[in-house]
Amino acid sequence: MATPWALASHSPVLAGVALLLLIGLPTVFVTPGDKIQVPVAAPGWVTVGLVVLQLFAAVTASWAAWPVPVALLVWALVIGTVYTEIPRWRRLTGGDLVATGPVHLANEGLAFVFELLALALLAWWGATVGSGLALHLVLGIGTPLVAAVVWGLFAAPKARVALPLAGVLAVKALVFVTAMLCLDVLGHRTLAVVFGVLVTANTVIATLDREAAFRKVDVSPGAVITNVRRVL
Predict the structure, then answer these.
(1) CA end-to-end span of the chain
(2) Transmembrane region positions (predicted)?
């Protein structure tokens, strides 16, 4: 809905083509076993790619088509969709969706960079909002400091408070969405959308990697008892 809505004011033809592609391609190209009717058989990664294309179109077009609160709702729906789609994507690809080697290292490095960028955006917003040097200093220093403390307590790899995966992702979403809104308020909506898309992709990949690594750890009662005996 968001993509043709955003394109309609520029070209009704483009809006119609976008709608046809976003609905038609996933209908025609289907992985056997995923749906009952398979017009054209496609490998699993094609189906996953088409779903990702739809989600990418939703998060980018919603910012151009609708007010910010609605765009944020779309973003939340997309994040929830990714979370619920992961088991299906694993089944379609025949195993774990993980990044290996240099890709894994690059994604982990980008995760750290995005965290620093989020804090910098919060500081930038705090240093410009309102009037008066005192307010600028309080918000410019206090806002990223609060975000950093919350991240360290709940979302960091060695967080002091252990939350379930959904809770960790909620904390990350809170920090990153707030930073994205700050960038939008500062007059850089396009950059805010790009930042949000890149952060979402990075977070999804990192989450899949860490889940896969956890599943490889033997947590059966026998293995746990053996490890405890080794420690003792």
Answers:
(1) 60
(2) 12-31, 38-57, 63-84, 105-127, 133-154, 161-181, 187-208
Joined together, the tokens standing for residue 231 give 């420690």
With contact defined as beta carbons under 8 Å apart, do 202 and 109 qualify?
A: no
Q: Provide mean pLDDT across the span 195-215.
A: 82
Tokens representing 4? 């043709």
pLDDT in tens, 137-168: 999 999 999 999 999 999 998 899 999 988 99
3-class DSSP assignment, residue 30? strand
Q: Residue 210 has what pLDDT?
A: 74
The predicted-structure confidence for 36-47, as pLDDT tens digits, reads as follows 999 999 999 999
Model pLDDT for residues 96-144, shown as the tens digit of each residue: 677 777 888 899 999 999 999 999 999 999 999 878 889 999 999 999 9
φ, ψ (nearest 5 deg) of residue 79? -60, -45
Of 33, 36, 29, 87, whose CA–CA distance to 54 is shortest?
A: 29
- Contact call for residues 51 and 60 (beta carbons, < 8 A): no
**d(C-alpha 199, C-alpha 155), whole Å:** 15
8 A C-beta contact, residue 68 and residue 181: yes
Q: How far is CA 204 from CA 56, 82, 110, in A?
A: 13, 8, 12
Angle of helix 102-128 relative to helix 165-185, nearest 10 degrees?
50
**pTM recorded for the entire structure:** 0.79
